[in-house]
Amino acid sequence: MKKALLSCIATVFLAFGLVAFPQESADAVRNALSLCCQVVIPSLFPFFVLSTFMNQSGVSNRFGQFAVPLMSRLFRLSGDGASALFLGMIGGYPIGADCVRSLYQNGKVSKQEAEHLLIFCNNSGPAFVLGAVGCGVFGSMRIGGILLVIHWLSAWLIGLVLRFRTNETEKCLFVEEADAGFAPTFCTAVKTAAMTMVNVCAFIIFFAVLTELLHMTHMLPHDGIVGAVCTGLFELTSGIAALQPSVFNPHTAMLIASVLLGFGGISVHAQTAALLSETDLSLTPYFLGKLSHAATSFLLTRGFLQFFPQSIPASAVWLHGQTNWPGLAVTAVAILSFCMLLLFSEKRTGNR
Questions:
Q1: Cα separations in angstroms, 230 against 181, 205, 210, 257, 271
Q2: How many CB atoms lie within 10 A of CB 246?
Q3: Could you give the angle at the alpha carbon of 108 between the alpha carbons of 102 and 113, nearest 5°?
């Protein structure tokens, strides 16, 4: 009954907002489409293809065999989870969740392992943290690097602390899969990645409109620190962009940015839920993990700023039109890694 009532209220609010503020809603859609075309699709689509190809071609299986000692001793997980950890670190939201879903659906990890992986393997990527946050917002590669290290370290700490959730006796064994050949696997990976990319962009557009309507109806603060935090809780990119160091104290802005990166935003969680909708994986551990990630990021960032206050400049400049060298570097590494994986797959299967 309560869910039905909330659904009705939300529907009426959206209908009223779209009718009352048609121009603002249309502008929000255009801005979100621009964001998807210029940032989201170039950053995420190659990693979606890479994630799907690794899992369906058997490369993640062979890669996991080498990672068994590390994953087992640190996180009490099988080696197959290493691909989700690796791609979740370099790909950004929601690449980690997509990789975990693929691993679980292919029977490479158990349900318990998959839910544990979701807690700490779905993270923001270096292209976004170094480029968009570090250079774009703070005008400092150093700040971006610090935030990225804290973001990764917080995720690993959560995985270590909650390692007791995984039962060591429940492990999925490595299964040698029949290789379907490079061409069919690659085509399937591209098609799957394209559909996933469409879903991700759809959620970004919807939450951009929802956030704008909440601003227009004054239900969501628009200015100041409270406005940036509330916006970031709904949509990560918009909240981070609102943290202009020319307006806020750089230390405060850095602290808020670290928390928002750890939490991810409701838009990211909705994307993750959509990816996992065809599975029986519970989202409760994942959501609790993101709350823990945000809290851990806050503590680590606060401690860093207290012990190394001079490492952060007293003022920062908002940069426009700066080349996203970190993003280009990460993309280059991803392309090189993808080529190496293709060569490795060709060599193992004997395809020419």
A1: 48, 17, 13, 12, 19
A2: 11
A3: 90
